[in-house]
Amino acid sequence: MYVSLACLLQEEGYLTWMSGFVLMGLSRDWKPQAGLFVFFGATYQLTLLGNKPIVLLIGLNAQIHLPMHSFLGHLSIVDICYTSSRVLQMLVHFLQEKKTISFAQHGAQFLFSFALGGTEFLLLATMAYDHYVAIYDSLLYIALMSPRLCIVLVAVCCLVGLANSATEKAITMFLPTCRHDVPNHMACMDTQRARWQTR
Questions:
Q1: What pTM does this model have?
Q2: How far apart are CA 100 and CA 118, in angstroms?
Q3: What is the pLDDT of residues 70-97, one digit of tens each?
Q4: Residues in a beta bridge with 10
């Protein structure tokens, strides 16, 4: 089972153990990397500044605890978590000279990013259903979209997103990575595509 977390290189009759990936990133020069760090850091801060007030307002104001606002609050939380799962590691790599990521970190980032991305898509579909009910059956909206149903729908979105991500990660961990541990990308999830392109 542990062989799936690392690759055994077979060259000239002996095996070499690989411990992770080396990410090349967008540039090897320090000045462009510093500029990219500032740009992506500012973009990340804007994402937080846009989503945190939504979560706080919905959480603090009891008058807007309607299903549509509840879904919007959960979508903002998922958006913050999804952005954090990708951007924080990328910002760290902009500051490091040696940009490496272990197989365990790679697996965790892949799992959480895909789970949160899938959950976000499912929440958007659930919000579309919620708006459909609010427009076409407005008189029965409160009866149809009860708080309990909203909690169930959000939980189903999270569980389906996590199950999909875990299935994809379990399958891709068995793909060969031999001789391809230096992908020319800035995030470890791109190594999944690099595996397929180099075969």
A1: 0.72
A2: 26
A3: 899 999 999 999 999 888 888 887 877 7
A4: 15
